[in-house]
Amino acid sequence: MNQQQKQGGSDQPNQITINVVVNLPQSTLKIQVNINHDIPFDKFINGIKEQIFAQKMKAQYEETIEYLLENGSIIQSNEIRTLQILGFKNNCTLQVRLMLKGG
Predict the structure, then answer these.
(1) In the predicted model, is pLDDT for residue 8 greater than 50?
(2) For the Ubiquitin-like domain, which residue ranges apply (predicted)?
(3) Distance from C-alpha of 91 to C-alpha of 83, rounded to nearest angstrom
(4) pLDDT tens track for 67-81
């Protein structure tokens, strides 16, 4: 059972692992998320943003965030289609690029 977990296996058929790479102006943050592929992107990304930001930082970046899936798709934060429909696959990578407002 431990071996399956190490290999990223899941007993939930709709569960996928997404590698989120957050490009900050001065650093890079990597987060791995195991999630149901039927969740809408906007709900998924709200959870990611909660992990990235402290409340006081959020206002600096809020309107200057780009989401880029490894297949080249740029996704808006208010996108309501599911992760599966948008092309998210198991172990795919989502690039999140944050820029300071006005910068």
Answers:
(1) no
(2) 18-103
(3) 13
(4) 999 999 999 989 999
